[in-house]
Automatic annotation (TrEMBL):
Main localization category: membrane
Database matches in CDD domains: TM_PBP2
Transmembrane regions listed in the UniProt entry: 21-40, 83-105, 112-131, 151-170, 191-216, 249-270
Extent of the signal sequence: none
Record localization: Cell membrane
Classification via Pfam families: BPD_transp_1 (PF00528)
Domain of life: Bacteria
Positions of the ABC transmembrane type-1 domain: 79-270
Family to which this protein belongs: Belongs to the binding-protein-dependent transport system permease family.
Stretches assigned to coiled coil: none
Family matches, as SUPFAM superfamilies: MetI-like (SSF161098)
PROSITE patterns associated with the record: ABC_TM1 (PS50928)
Protein name: Carbohydrate ABC transporter permease
Length: 285
């Protein structure tokens, strides 16, 4: 009887602990989702309702906010600018970093080791320390107010982190694959693009997603390099809703909602690759 009572108390304690854990997770989810609730509800309120009743649901869905934001931001134009800049940057980062990492990982010589550490040291240098000389360099090369020039700068900034990811992944691929291909007469160029690159799709997807999120949402660098109105990206165009004497919160939140939709759509489109990339990285790690 005593042993049965002890088992019953132990089982009750485990149930109580599990219930507490689930309640804690539920509260954490609510905290995480609260900003999204604020953004979505505020985006469909009138300006007075936004100021006086910020936590309430909108009395009616005020779709005119979306229309105003689209027109004021010239959203189709800034969306294309942001997409072009992000696409060009992440593709450039993936191509350059992948080929560089392949050479470093497959040639374990002292020179390539020094090159690897020199590249990765770029992660240790704060961006703000390089900002002034980088802007000066872009001015000297006539790359200001140029989306392609800004994409080149992003490629340079993104290479250290992406090379760090690629080298660790490539080094875990069995070397016998490369040796067999070389014995069959495969050139280094074909070895990378035909054999190695298909095996890197998971880490490539992961690096593209991480770099795309950073470049899509970046504000400071475009602010300092893109001054023409027709070259603005989405974060720069959103700045129009903030003023010295007031902020149009309903329009600002509507702009956040519009700018988030392409990323949400891309996430659902690439969801399988995201999960596989994270899982593959965990196994390879």
């Amino acid at each position: 009887m005593r042993a049965k009572s002890i088992r019953t108390r132990s089982f009750s304690f485990r149930k109580f602990r599990l219930a507490g854990f689930e309640i804690g997770l539920f509260l954490l989810i609510l905290v995480y989702l609260f900003p999204f609730y604020i953004m979505i509800t505020q985006a469909f309120k009138t300006a007075p309702e936004t100021l006086h009743y910020p936590l309430r649901l909108p009395s009616t869905l005020y779709w005119d906010n979306i229309v105003q934001v689209w027109n004021l931001m010239k959203f189709d134009k800034v969306l294309w600018n942001t997409f072009y800049l992000t696409f060009l940057s992440v593709v450039g980062i993936a191509i350059v970093s992948g080929m560089c990492s392949f050479a470093i990982a497959r040639r374990n010589t002292r020179g390539y080791g020094i090159l690897y550490y020199a590249i990765v040291c770029g992660l240790l240098i704060p961006f703000y320390m390089t900002l002034s000389p980088l802007i000066k360099l872009m001015k000297d090369l006539n790359l200001m107010d140029n989306l392609t020039g800004l994409a080149l700068a992003y490629v340079g900034r993104g290479i250290p982190f992406t090379v760090f990811l690629y080298v660790g992944f490539i080094r875990n691929i069995p070397g016998e694959i490369a040796e067999s291909a070389v014995m069959d007469g495969c050139s280094p160029n074909r070895l990378y693009w035909s054999i190695y690159f298909p095996m890197l799709k998971h880490i490539t997807s992961t690096s593209i997603i991480l770099n795309a999120l950073w470049i899509w949402n970046d504000f400071l660098f475009p602010l300092l390099t893109l001054h023409l109105p027709d070259k603005r990206t989405i974060p720069l165009a959103q700045y129009v809703f903030y003023g010295s004497y007031g902020t149009q919160w309903n329009l600002a939140f509507a702009s956040y909602l519009l700018s988030m939709l392409p990323l949400v759509a891309a996430y659902f489109f690439l969801q399988k690759n995201i999960v596989e990339g994270i899982a593959a990285g965990a196994v390879k790690g």
